[in-house]
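Q: What does the assembly look like in three dimensions?
Context provided by user:
Components: three
Sequences:
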Amino acid sequence: MSERAYNFAYLDEQTKRMIRRAILKAVAIPGYQVPFASREMPMPYGWGTGGVQVTAAILGPDDVLKVIDQGADDTTNAVSIRAFFARTADVATTTDTREATIIQTRHRVPETSLTENQILVYQVPIPEPLRFLEPRETETRTMHALAEYGVMHVKLYEDISRHGHIATAYAYPARVAGRYIMDPSPIPKFDNPKLDNCPALQLFGAGREKRIYAVPPYTKVVSLDFEDHPFERTKFEAACEFCGARDSYLDEVVTDDRGGRMFVCSDTDYCEKRQAAQSRKAAE
Amino acid sequence: MYVAVKGGEKAIRNAHRLLADKRRGRRELREIETAEIEEQLALAVDRVMSEGSLYDRRIAALAIKQARGDLIEAIFLVRAYRTTLPRLGFAEPLDTAAMTLRRRISATFKDLPGGQVLGPTFDYTHRLIDFGLDAPAQTETPELAEAVAETSPRVTDLIARDDLIEREARPEAGAPVADITRDPLAFPAPRDARLQNLARGDEGFLLGLAYSTQRGYGRNHPFVGEIRCGEADVELFVEDLGFAVSLGEIAITECQMINQFKGGDGHPARFTRGYGLAFGQSERKAMSMALVDRALRADDYAEERKGPAQDEEFVLSHSDNVQATGFVEHLKLPHYVDFQAELGLIRQLRREQDGQPEASQQEAAE
Amino acid sequence: MSAPLLVARGLGKRFGAVTACRDIGFELEEGEALAIVGESGSGKTTLLHMIAGLMTPDSGEVRYRLRDGAMRDLATLSEAERRALMRTDWGFVHQDAARGLRMNVSAGGNIGERLMALGDRHYGRIRQSAAQWLERVEIPIGRLDDSPATYSGGMRQRLQIARNLVTAPRLVFMDEPTGGLDVSVQARLLDLIRTLISEMGLAVVLVTHDLSVARLLSNRILVMKQGEVIESGLTDRVLDDPRAPYTQLLVSSVLAA
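A: Here is the predicted structure of the complete assembly.
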């Protein structure tokens, strides 16, 4: 059987229209999870089908696409997704954050600040921030509708009473535009402040759970906390081994079996740019 | 000196090549033909069609070949293919009363119009491995008797004549039918959406749930009213012609369960029912589906939902094996960024527990 | 004198062929405690659930006076209004404390939940309020961070009460609050409940099969049998001088203490 011709970016235009309608609703109600009829995609559920559908719906031939996973362009799933779009859309791709018009990401926000010309598409496994406190969809829908979020703070209270700290390190819940509480996807809490007042449009796609939500540009996003236990950003003890950055999220690399450790920037593009700048400076 | 990991792209390419090599296996062995899978592994093909939600024996067989025999992987391939197909219209409801019957049994009556027809079944075989199958052999071609002209009315229709079994609710003509591939499932789900979900649901999952109802987790006293295997006509109503045209036949298995009767409060006692339908000869699936269908109808009969098979959200949210395997297997993807965050947190907590509060406060401060 | 806090009229409920409640009506004033007594199967729990808006009556209505003075038919409340009422103005103490508590959350979290639901965002203050309430219901302060799974039955009940009263509700429903507890534990718990009712001016609708509980906690009493109220009035009067034969039977069959 010969290869069929696929529509631009795989999805048919009807499906893209349906997804874009869901995106518009999501943008109109920041942080609210809009149900959408997620399609079966040629990659498994849980591997980015939501993000891929959102990207496919908004992608145009003049776009420049960057895909990252864990902050890096070269991780296997990012490679696979980038190849998918290169093949089905023949669109330009890049590893340079500044060049990209659409950035699809799994579990990280780029260190480089984003602009108004960019859209950040997050891959989301579990869109419902209340899910682990309340497994029933019928109940969580009602809680969101009535802004009944007391149970979220109960969880944070428990953390503090048990550990002395809020014990959520990633997928840290945040309040959007003062109304809906959302799960920002499993980004480390280190990245939460980047969502607040961001010039770029932020879209969140959950394929398996069939939900899309959005944070419009310049929207207030506040991570949940207590007045006397404010949200605290993670700080690393080390600097990046390659570029010396002290303000970026670092991956811990095990270098030998005697406990040897090294820290390097998770955002490979950011790190490479810094290294390049340092080499230029050294050459001057 | 440590060099940052690169080469993800190359690794993936090589993995694909290795996979293709393994799929083919030892070159001195003949390559399996799709037609052989279609014919001699027919029940695997039936399952892949049912859960892949696409009636095409050849595509299902090809998917099984490509998937190296992993049926859920094959189902995934079929689903992804199905998504790309254009939709031409909706068939008329299948008339299972008019099926060509290959197999037809009822546990509720010893004999009935149309008779008990065993058909090709494993049911009464002795499960002894036949080592003779290891080498190619001549299988006898059995003599076929004349087809019986007797009609075989549905058992449930027979009981319904005496008004002893609940009638299936007839929807209004032209009423829209739910389509779970177009609209996300919402709870509580209407019965048409539930049945669609169950029809594509994983056989193993539904089998376990069905079994649980029999063992007391939401018992509903089932009897197999009827199981029918055979071919049914698929008809499409053509606007321009003003009548329905047959597009061909599909092989299906239908199971009607007859369950615990209900009544009282002014309503006469009647048997209740559960329904199961699958492509090909898939009795285990059709029966399990019928048991779970009945269990999920708890509200219709004012039954308390106590067993997992009666929990609508639980059953319908976890029945799709393509979704399930995607999410379970996604744990193989890199999660080191989040793991790093957890490491950081746990180290901080341990430092504090071990009595170094000043250091951690300095670090934690903005 | 202000309008009654709660008015029930013509309440009825059937389950199939069984009539659980038939034509029940009463009025409850602010700060008044009403006991609904009867044997099991009398319909008293069904009645309680209808009054608390947890079950829809087949006939009749229940009206409640909101804080702003408006009398509202419970059947007309939106889900949002009903939940808000449940969280602020009302309390519900279940017979089985585990139903009215989050068993996997600490005592402090359980008591603090309503405060957090209402927008309280200061951990220290929430914790302090929870601690104060723990003391008030006579649970040792050291148990603040323990989960109620580690509590005794009596302690769980006290915690459930604290969780309900932290927002100073005006009306509390109680379903056999001392059921299943040791006699000595019951006595202390009843004493606590009586003190709190009096100190906080709570209105209470209490369901119990135990006449001594009714006598200790309530001002007025409804005696139910097979879905109907067969006698009602001031608790002391009804229990000291029962008029209906069934009430006489109930009273006389209470074992002497």
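Follow-up: The two ends of chain B are 34 Å apart (CA to CA).
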